[in-house]
Design goal:
The chain is of the alpha/beta class. The protein is 57% helix and 11% strand. β3, α10 and β4 form a beta-alpha-beta unit.
Length: 252
């Protein structure tokens, strides 16, 4: 039986991977010996796998994660107070299904951004949309967007994204406009979507960093009370790696 007409029809149906797989099956005596149901199952599996891979690649591209990390890459060997059981629990993405938040705090260099990106990568694997943003850059960008008509589009993007990662909370002082934009973001996402925040400052200091008691109450109320917390400590991993590299260098 000539398979070329069937291959052409599969292409017309947008099933390019299945069409290519059918041609490969026809050229393999071993696969050609399988039953119709078995061959059809292989074709469907190949098409589905390719589509899933394309969709994941597209979600990761849109997420614009700062680091290419995944949960399997998280280093638990260093003494930095990282709760391995909690990381394993977060990697299940149940917190995303429950619309909860994740707060990661600790001194510079202990891997906060890496862990955030790893958990966001896992979210993309599970079919969720994600977006990585540095808060010191986002808030001024939103202020500029008010003047050129992009503010509404920005907010729509943030509201629709399943997981928004806000990195480096507290590094820059907030204006009143910044505070109100942050409150608007968190208000729209509260109990609808999940937000992840990283900061060099302990969570207990986040209230004072906002700079306005009334808005601080409103912002943290929507962020903290339904959040999982990862509190890291210890020396910068970058410093530890530099020390190790220096120690391994031969004497000259």
């Amino acid at each position: 039986m000539l398979i070329h007409p069937t291959v052409d029809k599969l292409h017309r149906l947008g099933l390019a991977v299945m069409a290519r797989s059918l041609a490969e099956q026809d050229a393999s005596a071993e696969l050609a010996a399988l039953s119709f149901a078995e061959r059809l199952g292989l074709l469907a599996d190949r098409e589905l796998t390719e589509r899933d891979n394309r969709q994941l690649k597209n979600r990761l591209r849109k997420a614009a994660l700062r680091q290419g990390a995944c949960p399997e890459d998280i280093d638990h060997r260093h003494a930095r107070g990282l709760d391995k059981a909690l990381v394993r629990q977060l990697a299940t993405c149940q917190w995303l299904r429950e619309r909860h938040n994740v707060l990661i705090s600790g001194p510079t260099g202990v891997g906060k951004t890496f862990i955030a990106c790893a958990l966001a990568h896992q979210a993309c694997r599970e079919g969720y949309s994600a977006l990585y943003l540095r808060l010191p850059k986002l808030l001024p960008e939103l202020a500029l967007a008010r003047g050129d008509g992009r503010h509404g589009r920005w907010m729509k993007t943030l509201n629709r994204t399943d997981l928004v990662v806000l990195d480096d909370y507290g590094l820059a002082a907030m204006t009143d406009e910044h505070r109100r934009d942050l409150l608007e973001i968190l208000e729209e996402r509260y109990e609808r979507r999940s937000t992840m925040v990283t900061s060099q400052f302990p969570i207990e200091q986040w209230y004072g960093l906002i700079g306005d008691p009334t808005l601080a109450d409103a912002i943290l109320d929507r962020l903290v009370h339904n959040a999982y917390r990862l509190t890291l400590k210890g020396e910068s991993l970058r410093k530890q790696r530099r020390k190790l590299t220096t120690a391994e260098e031969p004497n000259t």
